[in-house]
Amino acid sequence: MSLPKSIPEVSFFRFLNHANNILKNPLPFHSENFKKLGDIFRLNIGLGKSVLFCRDAGLLQHALQKNQKNYTKSYIQTKDLAKYVGKGLLTAEGEHWQRQRKLIQPAFHKSQLVLLLDTIQQTILEELKNIKSGKPMDVFPVFNDLAFQTVVKSIFNIAISDADIASLQHTTEATQKMLVQELRQPFLVWWFNLSGKTKKHLDLTQNSRIILKRLVEERKQSNTKHDDLLYMLLGATYEDGTSMEENQLVDEILILFAAGHETTSNALTFTCELLARNPDSQVKILEEIQRIKNESDDIMHWIKNATYTKLVIEESMRLYPPAYFIDRVNIEEDSFNGILLPKGSTLLFSVFEIHRHPDFWTNPEEFIPERFLDENTKFSKNYFPFGAGPRMCIGNNFAMYEMILAIIALVEQFEIIEKKEPIQIKPLITLKPYNAVLEFKSR
Predict the structure, then answer these.
(1) What is the rounded distance in angstroms from the CA atom of residue 252 to the CA atom of residue 294?
(2) 306 vs 19, more confident
(3) What's the pLDDT score for residue 1?
(4) Most C-beta atoms within 10 A of its C-beta, which of 342, 367, 380, 385?
C-alpha cells in the first residue's frame, strides 16, 4: 500500500510577511504558490490553523458532486457571512438547506422567470440611461445599480422609496467589505469587536431587516397578486402545508440581495471591459441583435437566440469568475488521488485558477468566446461559474437572462470605445472590477 502524498506547505511567517498585499489582492500570492508547489498546498494562518488551497478541478468535482454528502461549507459562509445575512440558501446547511432549497426552487424555474422578463428589461433600459456618451466613466457603479435595482424589482414589483433602496444597497456593500477585513486579517478580529466596528455593521444589517419586514407586511396586507419573487415565496409551502416564517423569508431576501446583485454587476462590468479590448466581438453582437430583433419582439426569443452574446458572457465568467473561490470542509476523513484529507480540513478551491489552468484550457489567458461553441467545453469538469452539484447557484438562469438582456441593450445603444490598458481587479468576497473606466459612443 502506497503512502499518502504529502501536501506542500506555506509557512505562517510567509503569510504574515505578505499580509498587506494579500489584503489588497491575494490572487498573485496564491498564483505564485500554485506555480511553485502544484495544484494543492497548505497555508498556515496561525494559531494552529491552516487552509488547503486547491486548483484541481477533479478534487472540486469530488467535493461538490461525487462525495458532496461528506462536505459542508466552511465557517466563512455558515458563521462569518451568516451573521450579516442570516441563514438563507447560501449559508444554510443540512436538513435546513434541503428544506429551503425544495421550497424556493420552483420560484426560479424558467417558466416562472418568464413572468419577470418585462420587469427585468424595463429596469435595464432605465438604468442604462445613466451611461453618457463621449466622456470616460467608471461603468461599475452603473452596473452595480442596474443589478441591484433588477433584484429589488424582481422581488418587490412595487414602488419602493429611493431611501429604502439606498439603505439596503449600502448595507449589502458595507457588510461585505467588513467581512473581507475579518477574513484577511483574522489576527485583528479581536480589535474589530473591541472597537465596535463589527457591531456597527451588525446594526446596519438589523436596519435592513426592519425595512424588509415592513415591505413584506405591506405586501401581505395589500392582498394583491404580483408577478414577482415575493408573491411566489409568500405562496410557497413546505410538505406539511406551512409557509416560511417571516424571519426566514427576510434571510432569503438578504441572500438574494448579497448573491444576486454583486456577482451580476461584476460579470457585466468585466464583459464590457473585455468588449472594449475586443471590438470585433461588439460587431458580432450588434449583427446578432439586429437579426434576432427582426425575427421577433419576444424577449425570450432574444435570450434563446443571442448565441454569440451568451458565448461572450461565458468566456467573461471564465476569465473573471465572480465567485472566484469555493470553500468546503470534509466531515469525515477523505482521500483523493493519493492525497489524505484529515477530518475537518478546510479547502478553498480557486475557481479563478481552475478557469485558467494551462493543462486544460488552450491559450487560457486569451479572450476566445468561440471556445464555448464546443459543448464539451461549456459543460466541462473545468468550468464552474455558478458552482456545481446540489449547491449550484439557484439563480443561474435568472443571472444569465439578465446579463444577456443587459448586453443586448447596451451594445444596441452604444459602441464601447477601444481600450488597451490591462483590466484591473479587486478581489473581495466576490471578484470585483477596479477602475473600470470606459468611454461610450451613441449609435
Answers:
(1) 40
(2) 306
(3) 47
(4) 385
Cell numbers linked to 217:
407586511
Distances (CA, A) of 363 to 357, 359, 369, 371, 431: 10, 10, 12, 10, 21
Please give the distance of CA 408 from its chain centroid, rounded to a whole number. Answer: 21
CA distance 351 to 322: 9
pLDDT tens for residues 1-10?
A: 455 688 999 8
> What average pLDDT does the chain have?
90
CA distance 442 to 413: 6
Where is 327: in which H helix or E strand? strand 325-330
- Which residues on adjacent β-strands are paired with residue 346? 329
Domains of the chain and CATH, by start? 9-442 (1.10.630.10)
Contact 295, 301 (CB under 8 A): yes
Straight-line distance from the first to the last Cα atom of the chain, in angstroms, rounded to the nearest whole number: 68
| CB neighbour list of residue 300: distance below 8 Å, 6 or more residues apart | 114, 117
pLDDT at 156 exceeding the cut of 90: no
Asked if residues 381 and 58 have their Cβ atoms less than 8 Å apart, the reply is: yes
Interhelix angle 197-222/162-184, nearest 10 degrees: 140
* Residue 415 bridge partners (DSSP): 441
Calculate Rg over the CA atoms of the chain: 22
* DSSP three-state, residue 362: coil
388 neighbors 64 (Cβ within 8 angstroms):
yes
∠ at Cα 108 (104, 112), nearest 5°? 115
Beta carbons within 10 angstroms of residue 115's beta carbon = 16
* pLDDT tens digits for range 12-26: 888 888 878 887 888
Q: Exposure of 294 by Cβ count < 10 A (0-12 exposed, 13-18 middle, 19+ buried)? A: exposed
Highest mean pLDDT among 89-93, 242-246, 277-281: 277-281
pLDDT band (50, 70, 90) for residue 379: low
Cell of 365: 489567458
Q: Is the dihedral of CA 256, 261, 264, 266 positive or negative?
A: negative
CB contact at 8 A, 109 and 417: no
User: What are the tens digits of pLDDT across the range 322-372?
Assistant: 999 999 999 999 999 999 999 999 999 999 999 999 999 999 999 999 999
CB 139 within 8 A of CB 417: no
Q: Is 179 exposed, middle or buried (CB count within 10 Å of its CB: 0-12, 13-18, 19+)?
A: buried
* Percent residues over pLDDT 70 in the chain: 98
Q: Give the Cβ contact number of residue 333 at 10 Å.
A: 12
Q: How far is it, in rounded angstroms, from Cα 345 to Cα 44?
A: 12
